[in-house]
Amino acid sequence: MSNIERIRNFAIIAHIDHGKSTIADRIIHKCGGLTDREMSAQVLDSMDIEKERGITIKAQTVRLKYKAKDGNEYILNIIDTPGHVDFSYEVSRSLSACEGSLLIVDSTQGVEAQTLANVYKALEINHEVIPILNKIDLPASDIEKTKQEIEDVIGIDTSSAISCSGKTGEGIEDILEAIVKTLPAPKNNNTNKLKSLLVDSWYDTYLGVVILVRVVDGQIKKGMKIKLMSNKQEYTIEKVGVFTPKPIDEESLDPGQIGFIITGIKSLSETKVGDTICDASDPINDPLPGFKPSKPVVFCGLFPVDSSEYEKLKDGLAKLNLNDASFSYEAESSSALGLGFRCGFLGLLHLEIITERLEREFDVSLITTTPGVIYKVHKTRGDVLDLQNPSNMPDPSLIEKIEEPWIKATIITPDEYLGTIIKICQDKRGIQSNLEYSGKRAVLTYELPLNEVVFDFNDRLKSVTSGYASFDYEISGYKEGDLVKLGILVNSEPVDALAMIIHKDFAERTGRQVCEKLKDLIPRHNFMIPVQAAIGGKIIARESIKGFKKDVLTKIHGGGARDRKRKLLEKQKKGKARSKQFGRVEIPQEAFIGVLRINKET
């Protein structure tokens, strides 16, 4: 048996919290990757935030040796993938580096929406899939029902499904044997020309850019000169190694193996995920079919609460971007909030995690503006503008039509909540495209505008179904929408940070709510402050914040008091008019946060 036939590359896929990382821990422990003393829960989740939230954000890889019952020693390369919808691009690139997948399903919960999405990705690229039923140690575990659900909803044969418990370690030996017997070995094309897939890259303070590669053909050696096919740049390999999960240096990586290389690259932008690496002295003509690069879908402004922390925020974004090239940022300024950045994210969880890491790791207090999506604005002159920031929207007379991104959403829910979920989807302008049943659970497919989903859809879904529904989506394309820019004016000055693009039907209601909220949250000044919501030049809602009235008449007594009082009141009136003209209205941070909450409540 040749070396390549004893290699098994596989990804672990599942819905959030179904036990991927725990089972990866058990497999590492069983194969002796780490000693009892070195083992910690979620070994592959290296970030504090991953351990705290109990989620995987970055896909991680580890190489293990396993002595099977047939007496042979096998090399197992595991990639533990994230389960949350925002990180699905991490899943797709991990799957491209493997030949098989372990599908983990919680035997107390059954098939969930993200399980479905990830399995379909694996089946699309012809993966061999081993179904595994986890958490069998729990009293609520129902193995037969879960098997039936996998067959009904996904359509995979479960006759050889393995029951296990990541917590107790029961069934882990069976999983390892199934990996060796069922999953295919990497293909050997018997060509000596180097062809390798760039799976991931991240920045290390001491080493520069570390590149995770999957060798398809040929061999990667230390000292070799390689070429990246996307930018035609050439580099010399300084270091080759594998993760066990500790990094260990090797002399070379052979076909079918997954490992890392270091070439002295200093900038992550040079290493595009999905790129093909070949030998600079003997290049290949056709690159490997990579995978779509991740594109930010949610945009919002990040501003420091204290303007003196701008440089700290800039530094924090630059450092986070080194290890997470999937979010983008560019400088922007706002008359209300000062200097800040317009940032693009893969989804709301991604936004939440980046902002939390900025506050925690770089000690910056942030104001986050309303999240929005990219709209395609078709102008009357025929050109198309990609619009992220509502304040950059052209004049309505120059716009022919506006298109917004739509998604195809899959929602899996217990039957009793179906009516409520359909009502939420309809309120969000959704169009139902399919409804199927698996036992007492409904699988609902909806077309929805991304802008309606991006803010609070997942939260509302979880709250109305007591956490039992699950949701996954993929972007399906752009459709024309009756959209308008809702502007907010305080003291007749537009507040660009509160501008939003919204469907015409919801504009008046939202405008009224924003004005009411700001009336409560902006402190009173010496003069009256009008708070208005406008579409173009038309005011659609208004509230007034009354000014303080200083009593200037108390000490006036005696003769001619009436005329003196009138003069003082006239003087006060002029003073108020002057201060209204020149006085700046301070909008506190709570007002912005309060307006963001309105969107969550509607």
Can you put this structure into words, describing what you see?
The chain folds into five domains: 3-182, 3-Layer(aba) Sandwich (Rossmann fold); 195-279, Elongation Factor Tu (Ef-tu), domain 3, CATH 2.40.30; 298-369, Elongation Factor G (Translational Gtpase), domain 3 (Alpha-Beta Plaits, 2-Layer Sandwich), CATH 3.30.70.870; 400-481, Alpha-Beta Plaits (2-Layer Sandwich); 485-499 and 510-601, Alpha-Beta Plaits. The protein is 27% helix and 33% strand. 43% of the residues are buried. It is α+β, with helices and mostly antiparallel strands. The model is unreliable at 41-59 (pLDDT under 50). The chain has 14 helices and 31 strands. The strands form six sheets. An eight-stranded antiparallel sheet has the order 11-10-16-7-8-15-12-13.
List keywords for this structure.
602 residues, alpha+beta, Elongation Factor Tu (Ef-tu), domain 3, Alpha-Beta Plaits, six-stranded mixed β-sheet, globular
How is the topology of this model organized?
Elements: E1 7-14, H1 20-30, H2 48-53, E2 60-67, E3 73-80, H3 88-96, E4 100-106, H4 113-124, E5 128-134, H5 143-154, E6 162-163, H6 172-182, E7 195-204, E8 208-217, E9 220-221, E10 225-228, E11 233-236, E12 239-243, E13 247-250, E14 252-253, E15 258-262, E16 276-279, E17 298-304, H7 310-323, E18 328-334, E19 338-345, H8 348-361, E20 366-368, E21 375-379, E22 384-387, E23 399-414, H9 418-427, E24 431-438, E25 441-449, H10 450-453, H11 457-464, E26 470-481, E27 483-490, E28 493-494, E29 500-503, H12 504-521, E30 529-535, E31 538-545, H13 561-582, H14 589-601
Parallel strand pairs: 1-3, 1-4, 4-5, 5-6
Antiparallel strand pairs: 2-3, 7-8, 7-16, 8-15, 9-14, 10-11, 10-16, 12-13, 12-15, 17-19, 17-20, 18-19, 21-22, 21-23, 23-25, 23-26, 24-25, 27-28, 27-29, 27-30, 30-31
Helix pairs in contact: 7-8, 12-14
